[in-house]
Amino acid sequence: MLKTDHVNVEMLKKFAPRPGARDLLPEISPKAQVALMCRILFAEGWDDHIAGHITVRQPDGTILTNPWELTWDEVTADDIVTIDAEGNVLDSDWNITPAIGLHLQLHKARADIHVVIHNHPKWSGIWACLQEVPPIYDQASAYCGVDIPIYNEYLGTLDNNEACASLIDALGEDARWALLAQHGALIVGKDLRQAHLRAATLEWRCRRAYEVRLAGGAEPLSNKVVEDVSLPDPNGFPFLWEAMARRELRRDPKVLGS
Description:
This protein is an alpha+beta fold. The protein has one domain: L-fuculose-1-phosphate Aldolase (3-Layer(aba) Sandwich). 38% of the residues lie in helices and 11% in strands. The chain has a 7-stranded mixed β-sheet, with helices on both faces. The radius of gyration is 18 Å and the shape is globular.
């Protein structure tokens, strides 16, 4: 991923006119990018054992996803599975989760969605159990806007087509994320950069809101302030995904595979 990929280039030129002293990342294959996304999000708190799945639609219509058997912090590029639009495995001996149907239906329902993430993170999981939208108290909680739909009708695991269709209807045509009541969190995005920012922002926002509630409460940011701060979501947060990817590469260079 180049530093200009999925970023508003004109905005980047305005605020970061210098070319940089070196490349932010080496050339990374699509499968390695998905493996790095698994590692990055695990570090962000998306870490419920072997639960959770990420799908990334490719230009040819195939979809890359993580295998069911492995935790997100051990996945490498060699483990990433290619599936077709119906969920058939094309190139791996690993299995995929039965709950992949939600992702497949989301990819079909919304042409703008190329990345879907689902897991049971700690902090957003608390607000999902409370069935409340966490207020925004600081800048880092405001990068992706105010609204968070809560899907209130608990229908168990997302391996049921009817449950998946109901959730997709609840999301509508433009939701970027959702809390799944008594279950977990869901992120959608147009690319890895945007999806990562949304996942990281949601978990940060949920943690900060819970901490503020425990401290006795405070005045949240106004919607106008949040609107002003949330420019990174549509325009791309430059350098962030690359920085988090480098952190994972320092921890374990084998994530790039053989």
